[in-house]
């Protein structure tokens, strides 16, 4: 694949977004090595066109080094044909469905901190999202089978799996920044415990093993030194009070995203491996140790993110979009911390990169089923991604993880066959669904009914 | 192995028992094909000698066809040397330790219906029992390496595993009657639903797959007809009210052993396979769906067996023993329903038998680790036992089962290495231990302390 | 399945045969427990009608206990609809193709003793036979999906595999008598070495593990005693001169079927397990240790069976058929030694049976791919067959066996996709094809061309 | 591990060698980033001391950038204590044993082109070498457990496996340059077929999968373009005449090392993957397709290397050594093409590297046994090596490879248990040992007898 680094084509599905799309714009703007065209496709065409304008305004700024042309596209076909890369970052459905996913289970005593990955909310979101990914995968197969496809959409595992299920030859992978935060905690730890300041998170080398949002590190080093003994001391030191990294983003957001990493520390004490995702995600994968009720969650120091916050956040961003369009505000030029551009550059041939991604298991995690989408490191090089052998999960963690892997396989089969009873098997088997089978069925039916608009062909009572 | 069917030797370890030993006596007494000597060994020598006398009194009765000689033996060496069969049925420790196993967790909100297999109680009982089985296995290796060894002691899986771990060439297997009850339910079902009365449980042919006390049937037939569709109707019919088989034994016992099979029916509705153990056992293997608290258990129609009942029961049996010895009471001649004698006869060469046993996995359950002790059918023939291929567990059940398989492997490693932290990993990973890690540790330490007499070499605070 | 043992239906595909069909008639004739109808279907309708008459003449004889009605059927549909059992025993193609399979490779220095299982001949025969089995499997699926299907046709593994590939729910198994001969050798051995005469081959209990015609015994007992130590002595005693069992059948046949069992003994000396098929079959699975050329085969004491013999044999049997029809000759009433009727009786519910069969691997042989057709013991009971766990092949044998398992998987994929290049991969990978790749291709093309009549849809140069 | 790049310690076991040791000296001499001390240990102390002098003379030269100090050490303990790296490159035994390994089998019609990896010669060499590696591994465990250990000695797989068997925590890997030659052929191919000259072999990116000397590439790219279609054309073009890369080294050597790559091309035509080792090695892993006799080997265009050549070559090098010591000749400053120094630099933290190495399988090759030493790419970074997931071997190649993997496991068990019969099982199972079992045993005994000096504790007839 001879990529022309000055004339790359990136198709962005969900290109009307005000979060990830803007991050991409910024990251492209500050990069000096590549340029080309970004095709913005969104079912909200207006939003895509707004972003087209915002992106082009940015490219015209003299302080911007990476000059890219932004084009809103009217169809997947147009967006995909001839593209080198595809980025998928969509919101499946509206906040209305998300509110049902996250909050309806609360009536049954089931609390979720995010509700987009596992648990009742993650499952129903998956059922809604999978048909969208079927459509996208078919379009990629038809119009850009050689393109590299980067997915950011949750539930990460099932979205990525759907792409491969529909088009086994796809060159797709899923990206998630949760591991980065854990690297940052390690960098903070070196400051706190050893007085070594200013360490970049990239300098913390980790071996990643697990499934998205329930990822683990069985090795972490700094300059070749094993960090796990120090992490043991660190977790003991902060097990009770917790340890919070205050980042700018957190300030902008608010307490709903707070995390004192106490879940992470507890899991380390239990199992001896570093859990490498935010506490809000980790808690959802376990039996209700940390999510028994809002009080317990509070004791563990993490917030439950209500959908009302997301509604408010979107309103803020739409206002910001207007200010960008009117020129009232300018986009701040600063790297987002995401790795998408780095990965694209490695694939284009501009230097190898080892980082964590979600890919079908081909042996990189020994003991998990082949074909299940797992998260490990991979080597990115010219037109190639190869997972790094991560080893095996310790048995105790394996028994927590396999439950979700099995559930995810069931969910995808249910989604493809539109089989409600099969989907319910997975629902009732989720560790958070710690209620009677009758209540579980009742909740399940209500949740499906609330999202039925996105489940054509299913037999759902309304 | 040319067994002399008229001169067989059976060593009974735990031969002072008033339950299983008496059942053996009765079953031998009513059998007309084999005879020989039963060597009774027990750390309670007095009890063994009482049973020697009771057994020999029985053999002298004119209405008894199977004439056996009973001999109390003073050492394992004497009991084992030259024996053809070894039966192991011991009580590990006293009721005091059992009370701690079963009831101490209640202070922490953890309820157990039996407490001898999994859960906190099962784990601590295992730690206490494994060293005893190490001693027995070493003695068998030394004195009767060619003998067939039948284990009845719980925790079945870990006791059997210990025998193989110490002496890989051992010819041992574990027997459990829980599957029989499920066959009886099917026989009752045929009466209830089809009006076919008088079916023997042996006529219900089943394919057994699972681990002891968490065993499943993926096939059940009567005269070649598939019973699962009927069982589906049956479970729907009785899901709410439950269905109780009133057996004589249950009357003798009492409500602590009641079962309305509602857990069994619920598991069928969840997973589509027949759970083949009593509800009291099944409930302990699941997340606290059925054992959240005593009220929930009651709603599900099964009792929690208190150790106080066992104390009372023993007292009754000791009085019965006195009456036997004085001739005041005579043992009732009736087959116990256990299969030990049938198995012995098949091994001696008196006809093949297919029945369920616990053996190390050599592939009979695809997908579970090789070497883990699993329960399936096996073909018993002359000096040979071969497991029957049971297939694979459905994924959803697999994810429940593997958690215990993994825990059991951890427990045995912990027991052999006397590693308290490792044992605690398994403890905290048990589905019933749905409490904070700190409380879990506290409970664990107290339980170990209560059983420390049986844990030589462990570092335990008293 | 409530079978009416006095009114069973057996469909015989290949029912015009003069070998296996007559054996079936005899076995049915001497059995007193079952009766019913045998439907004879054959593409050679005349032959089927002749057998109809021969069968019915037999049933009319007063000395015959098992009275069956024989009916020639004109279509698969008629033959199958409503049948309880299906027997498949066909000759795929004519002796012309068989001559090409067996003898053309000799021009290239490749010698085959049978040429119907593996080697160049076995492969080409498989390609020719698989489409026939596709048709049969589809008919069974359509007309008798609940019937038990017994296959006797070679190549056994691939015929049985085809049935399952086309109709996964089929209740089919493959039967082969090769293991019986090895049991007979063991019985002879007990006479020769221990002076114990008159042992039935059924009394030699064996554990069967392998693939058809390359099957092994890792356990053999007589009355519970391990026979392997004696077999070691026996093989040492006869390694040089060989040991021949002269059976009546062999006399009738001739030197082409001779076997001194020296290959069997050599394989035992190499690997320590008993190879359980005739030397003529075993030799074809190995590198050309025993089949380098006809002289080497002669040294090893086994004959290469020429197709000319089969032509002659058929002529003899057709004359015999005429004599049967004219009443000039009467069928001799004697059990054939095959187990088909025993198996049918067990499936009907007339008593369990443990014997060896070919079935898709569900774990009965640990380490071979799931789904590959393997040969082990199985428990036959009322409407049920369950394979017995056979264990694992020792690594050295595994490496010989896996080569054929892999080849067979390739052959079946090639046959289903009509992919000549894929078929050639398997051809060139056969251990007997020890020639240059160019010669191999040339031979392959010529062999395909000779059998092209049976390969519709393939691109073959004629 | 905070390595001091200006003060590294490298222990060289076999440090008296005139081939690999001199290559190391040259590669260190031309490198500008690292320096330190090389400790030379050899059972031939005189040779080590000569190399000490030669190395230090080199370091004194003004045209040398990498200044290293060379020290001959008298014991493993001295050489290892405190070292950062260990290089193992020894000649196990003398040319006398090697002559027996390579040439004695010729009396039995078995021809070997190298005789140091598999085949009768490779097996006997392994038996001789393993005890030496046991000693080395124990010394590393005792004196330098944290050091990185690079093995160059053949048989690579079994030497590396021995290190891990004795000391599971060892940080060892095996290096081999055979893949590099295949990359060079691809570079030549681009010149020949596309006119693109001057490509470095490092620019050909390959995915490596297999076992040492029988390694395969399932992907090869240049600037992101798939090279396999071109390689297909290339192999067709040169299948008959072959294609020879004339390198300087080949000229210095002679026809014994010639290779026309016809074996490589033939294997590609058979299996569709690129075999990535020299033809002399590849031929030894196959059935005697290419090594039937010297004429066949000649037709395939590769030479059989006689030990007489090695004797002559050593004589030449010893004379060269004298000239170095006397100053009559100067070492030529030129990179050897080996990657050892690059790997050391990556481990020290001077930049990541992806290259092929031999490591125990932890899943990098799906389908081969865990723990078997396999060859794949790995990521070298600061104090870390992680294998890259290579995928699965196609089934047809798998069946060739597994035979050797199985044999190698048998050999190592035989060597550790000094079990002659077990070793013979592997011997007789080697694809080249295509002779009668009796001749095989005779050859085996003679070969063992010839190497018995290095097999203490074995029962060998002399």
From TrEMBL, chains A, B, C, D:
<feature type="binding site">
    <location>
        <position position="213"/>
    </location>
    <ligand>
        <name>Mn(2+)</name>
    </ligand>
</feature>
<keyword id="KW-0408">Iron</keyword>
<comment type="subunit">
    <text>Homotetramer.</text>
</comment>
<dbReference type="Pfam" id="PF02056">
    <property type="entry name" value="Glyco_hydro_4"/>
</dbReference>
<keyword id="KW-0378">Hydrolase</keyword>
<keyword id="KW-0119">Carbohydrate metabolism</keyword>
<feature type="binding site">
    <location>
        <position position="154"/>
    </location>
    <ligand>
        <name>substrate</name>
    </ligand>
</feature>
<feature type="domain" description="Glycosyl hydrolase family 4 C-terminal">
    <location>
        <begin position="208"/>
        <end position="433"/>
    </location>
</feature>
<dbReference type="InterPro" id="IPR036291">
    <property type="entry name" value="NAD(P)-bd_dom_sf"/>
</dbReference>
<keyword id="KW-0326">Glycosidase</keyword>
<comment type="similarity">
    <text>Belongs to the glycosyl hydrolase 4 family.</text>
</comment>
<feature type="binding site">
    <location>
        <position position="176"/>
    </location>
    <ligand>
        <name>Mn(2+)</name>
    </ligand>
</feature>
<dbReference type="InterPro" id="IPR022616">
    <property type="entry name" value="Glyco_hydro_4_C"/>
</dbReference>
<keyword id="KW-0520">NAD</keyword>
<dbReference type="GO" id="GO:0046872">
    <property type="term" value="F:metal ion binding"/>
</dbReference>
<dbReference type="Pfam" id="PF11975">
    <property type="entry name" value="Glyco_hydro_4C"/>
</dbReference>
<dbReference type="InterPro" id="IPR001088">
    <property type="entry name" value="Glyco_hydro_4"/>
</dbReference>
<keyword id="KW-0170">Cobalt</keyword>
<keyword id="KW-0533">Nickel</keyword>
<dbReference type="GO" id="GO:0005975">
    <property type="term" value="P:carbohydrate metabolic process"/>
</dbReference>
<protein>
    <submittedName>
        <fullName>Alpha-galacturonidase</fullName>
        <ecNumber>3.2.1.67</ecNumber>
    </submittedName>
</protein>
<feature type="site" description="Increases basicity of active site Tyr">
    <location>
        <position position="116"/>
    </location>
</feature>
<dbReference type="GO" id="GO:0016616">
    <property type="term" value="F:oxidoreductase activity, acting on the CH-OH group of donors, NAD or NADP as acceptor"/>
</dbReference>
<keyword id="KW-0479">Metal-binding</keyword>
<dbReference type="GO" id="GO:0047911">
    <property type="term" value="F:galacturan 1,4-alpha-galacturonidase activity"/>
</dbReference>
<keyword id="KW-0464">Manganese</keyword>
<dbReference type="InterPro" id="IPR015955">
    <property type="entry name" value="Lactate_DH/Glyco_Ohase_4_C"/>
</dbReference>
<dbReference type="InterPro" id="IPR053715">
    <property type="entry name" value="GH4_Enzyme_sf"/>
</dbReference>
């Amino acid at each position: 694949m001879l990529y022309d680094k000055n004339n790359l084509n990136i198709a962005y599905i969900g290109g009307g977004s005000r979060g990830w799309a803007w991050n991409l714009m910024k990251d492209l703007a500050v990069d000096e090595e590549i340029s080309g065209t970004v095709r913005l496709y969104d079912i909200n065409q207006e939003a895509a066109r707004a972003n087209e304008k915002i992106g082009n305004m940015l490219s015209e700024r003299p302080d911007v080094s990476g000059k890219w042309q932004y084009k809103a596209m009217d169809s997947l076909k147009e967006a995909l044909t001839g593209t080198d890369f595809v980025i998928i970052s969509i919101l499946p459905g509206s906040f209305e469905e998300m509110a049902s996913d996250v909050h309806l289970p609360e009536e049954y005593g089931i609390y979720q901190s995010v509700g987009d990955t596992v648990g009742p909310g993650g499952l129903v979101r998956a059922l809604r999202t999978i048909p969208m990914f079927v459509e996208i995968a078919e379009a990629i197969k038809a119009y850009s089978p050689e393109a590299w496809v980067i997915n950011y959409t949750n539930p990460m595992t099932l979205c990525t799996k759907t792409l491969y299920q529909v088009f086994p030859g796809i060159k797709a992978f899923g990206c998630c920044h949760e591991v980065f935060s854990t690297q940052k905690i390690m960098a903070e730890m070196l400051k706190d415990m050893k007085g070594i300041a200013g360490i970049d998170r990239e300098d913390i080398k980790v071996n990643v093993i697990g499934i998205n949002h329930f990822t683990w590190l069985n090795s972490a080093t700094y300059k070749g030194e094993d960090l796990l003994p120090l992490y043991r001391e660190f977790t003991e030191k902060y097990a009770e009070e917790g340890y919070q990294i205050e980042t700018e983003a957190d300030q902008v957001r608010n307490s709903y995203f707070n995390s004192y990493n106490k879940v992470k520390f507890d899991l380390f004490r239990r199992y001896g491996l570093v859990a490498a995702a935010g506490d809000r995600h980790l808690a959802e994968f376990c039996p209700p140790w940390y999510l028994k009720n809002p009080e317990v969650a509070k004791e563990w120091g993490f917030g439950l993110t209500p959908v009302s916050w997301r509604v408010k956040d979107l309103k803020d961003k739409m206002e910001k979009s207007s200010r960008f369009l009117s020129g009232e505000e300018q986009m701040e030029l600063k790297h987002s911390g995401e790795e998408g551009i780095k990965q694209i550059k490695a694939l284009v041939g501009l230097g190898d990169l080892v980082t964590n991604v979600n890919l079908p298991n081909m042996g990189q995690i020994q003991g998990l089923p082949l074909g299940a989408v797992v998260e490990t490191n991979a080597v990115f090089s010219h037109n190639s991604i190869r997972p790094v052998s991560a080893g095996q999960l310790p048995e105790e963690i394996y028994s927590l993880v396999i439950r979700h892997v099995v559930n995810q396989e069931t969910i995808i089969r249910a989604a493809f066959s539109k089989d409600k009873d099969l989907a319910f098997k997975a629902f009732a088997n989720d560790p958070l669904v710690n209620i009677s089978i009758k209540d579980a069925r009742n909740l399940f039916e209500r949740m499906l009914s609330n999202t039925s608009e996105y489940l054509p062909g299913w037999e759902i009572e309304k």
